[in-house]
Design brief:
Blueprint (H helix, E strand, L loop, with lengths): L1 H130 L4 E5 L2 E7 H5 L12 H14 L3 E7 L14 H18 L8 E5 L11 E8 L1 H16 L1
Parallel strand pairs: 3-4
Antiparallel strand pairs: 1-2, 2-5, 3-5
Helix pairs in contact: 1-3, 1-5
């Protein structure tokens, strides 16, 4: 009897222990299942975060690549801009140098023109002082004009091309100034308006005006020692007339050859 009770108790105890172990095992299984579920959820969330992070990383890589390309482009453009700026600076410097050279050239020309005008004004003053009322003296178009009636030079301006003795007075005064001012160029311009040439060894007013101008030039050369290389003779016939009265014009101007050569030399010196 006691053995039966003991066996029964043992069976019940074993059964109870097995039930408890089963219960504990089931609880452990549930716990593991919950932990597994949680781990899966965490793994899914982690995978999601990794995916997002990878997307962000790719996006950042693309941005970095784009920024790198942009930076390289900017550096290239900056290099081009620097080169362009350098060329523009060089061109500006060349242009400034050219402008400065042109300014010097213009100043040289202006100084020579001013000098030429000053010589003409000085010549006008001297001629007026020396000649007085023997000739009408003016400055016209930048040169000195002396106008002498042909009647005062040739007596009968429609017939003669031989100078009268009284003409030597005014021509001597003109020559005196010319011999003092060696840089003055002289143009003797004849104007005649004769209507008939019957019995005269002349064809027309071209002949007469040229011969009258030549007579004046010849007197300046032979009688008063003016260098003939400084003298030009022009016959205007009746086509250069300013009035009915025929006249001889003596035009005084600095030697243009010397003037232009001086300007040319000064411009060369400015460039050098």
């Amino acid at each position: 009897m006691n053995k039966f009770i003991l066996l029964t108790t043992l069976v019940l105890t074993v059964t109870s222990l097995q039930a408890q172990k089963k219960k504990d095992l089931l609880a452990e299984i549930d716990k593991l299942r919950n932990e597994l579920r949680t781990t899966k959820n965490e793994l899914a969330e982690t995978s999601k975060q990794i995916s997002v992070a990878e997307s962000k990383a790719k996006s950042m890589e693309a941005q970095v690549k784009s920024l790198k390309e942009t930076n390289e482009s900017l550096l290239a453009n900056m290099g081009s801009f620097t080169e362009l700026s350098k060329k523009k600076a060089e061109n500006s410097e060349k242009l400034l140098k050219t402008v400065q050279e042109k300014d010097k050239q213009l100043k040289t020309i202006n100084d020579e023109i001013t000098k030429k005008d000053s010589i003409n004004l000085a010549a006008l003053t001297i001629f007026k002082d020396k000649i007085g009322g023997d000739a009408n003296i003016t400055v016209k178009q930048g040169v000195v004009y002396m106008v002498i009636p042909n009647a005062n030079l040739f007596g009968d301006p429609d017939k003669s091309y031989k100078l009268e003795d009284k003409a030597k007075g005014v021509l001597g005064k003109i020559a005196g100034v010319l011999n003092q001012k060696k840089d003055l160029h002289v143009i003797v311009e004849g104007n005649s308006n004769a209507l008939k040439f019957d019995g005269k060894p002349l064809s027309d007013n071209w002949d007469l005006s040229s011969l009258q101008a030549a007579a004046v030039a010849r007197a300046l050369q032979k009688d008063f020692k003016v260098d003939p290389k400084r003298i030009e003779v022009v016959g205007k016939s009746e086509y250069g007339m300013e009035s009915i009265e025929t006249v001889t014009r003596i035009i005084i101007d600095p030697n243009f050859d010397n003037f232009y050569q001086t300007v040319k030399n000064n411009m060369k010196n400015d460039k050098g």
